Structure formats: C-alpha cells, structure tokens
Amino acid sequence: MVGGKKKAAASVEPLKTKESSEPPQYCSWLMKSEPESRFEKEIDLKVQSLISTACFPKHFGIEELKALPDQTGCWDGVRNYQARNFMRQMKDGQLAFFYHSNCKEPGIAGIMKIVKEAYVDHTQFDKKDIHFDANSKADNPKWSMVDVQYQRMVKRYIPLSELKKYHLQHRAKGGPLKDMGLFTRARLSVQPLTTEEFEFILTLEDKEPL
DNA sequence: GCCAACGTTGGC
DNA sequence: GCCAACGTTGGC
C-alpha cells in the first residue's frame, strides 16, 4: 500500500539539492501540541477566570483544529529557533502528523496539511498573549507560523510508547525509526520526518498495536 | 507532581 | 566565548 503509487512516492522524496551547501529539503513533518494545558490543570479555575484567558496557553488538540472554520488554523506560539526554522522550510501541500504531547497518553493523533507557508506570527506582538516577545520588532519579526488544515485522524491512535519500541528495535537491528527525532531530539516541537519514517508510521495504522 | 534534558541568558 | 544559573519541555 505505502509506496504503491509512484507519483505520491516521488512527491514525498526528500529532494537532494544541487548546491550541497543548502540544507536538505524535507517533505513531511511532526508537530506537537498539548491537548490539555498544564496551567489549566494546575491553576484553580476560579482564580483563572479572574485573569485574562489570553494569558494562558490554550488546549489545542486535533479536535480543536478540526472544529475551526475550514478545519484550518495557524500554528502560532513556536518560540524555538530550530522549530521555527523547520516551519520556514515547510511547503504548501506537505503533510504533518499532529502529535499530542504532555498528556495522559502522548502520541500521533492525526494528519494535517500545510496550507499556508511561513508568515509572521502575530502573537509575538500581543502583550496579552502568553507568547508575547518584547524583543521582537515589527520591522524585523522573530517568529513565524504556518497554517495547517485537518486531513484525517489516524486509523488508530499511535502512542509514543509504541513508537519508542520500534525506535529501540530499529536502533538495535536497523530500521526506519532508528534516528527518529521524537527520541533523538525529544524537546523539539516541530520536526522533519524522512520519507522512510513517515511511510513506516503510516503502515502502523493497519497493524496491531505492539 | 517530579525531574532529566536541554535551550537561553547574562556575568565575567 | 565560556559556562553557571535559570526556564521550559514533556515523559513518566
């Protein structure tokens, strides 16, 4: 099934650029978001209601993306240079896994599509926003975001624990997840996936949980 | 809730 | 430019 369509496979292949100095081009991604907010878990609801809700990070799981008009939203609030730089490499039409982090069972919940390439993240200029950045100047914004559109849920939720088992297997004996960023660069919230990683994870949808 | 890993900041 | 202190991420 995966790789069966030549055309699709070709469009997902990482493009080796002619100029060897250029960074490698990635075609698929993994983006993390917290479906539950740590603040809202820990701060008393009454106290919270007295404070501007904009001061708190929002819950943003895949259900929230799905509920937006056109099932499309901006991926704002990324405040890490590596993650930002990866977002700036994203191209219209590329696919990304929606990963649920910092929750009961972290893992891959669904698939979304990049529908607008990197542009200025407005939240950096909003004093009331949790992601406000006083060091960012309007004539030289530091932070970018992309727009993503919900595509579908995965056929079954793919928990981190399962990906980790494969990662460990593959690290020992070889396999597509041996260097997966989820484990080698655990704190990076926007990560590129190789074609092999992306396609292998898709095959897990049709397999029994490990 | 705890804490390890790691990115950022700032003193020197 | 080093590096200690600090803050954040995110699994457990």
From TrEMBL:
Location of the protein in the cell: Nucleus
Superkingdom, natural source: Eukaryota
Main location class: nucleus
Region (Disordered): 1-23
GO cellular component: nucleus
Keyword annotations of the record: Nucleus, Phosphoprotein
Cited Pfam families: EVE
SUPFAM superfamilies found in the cross-reference section: PUA domain-like
Residues in EVE domain copies: 29-203
Biological role: Specifically binds 5-hydroxymethylcytosine (5hmC), suggesting that it acts as a specific reader of 5hmC.
Protein's UniProt name: Thymocyte nuclear protein 1
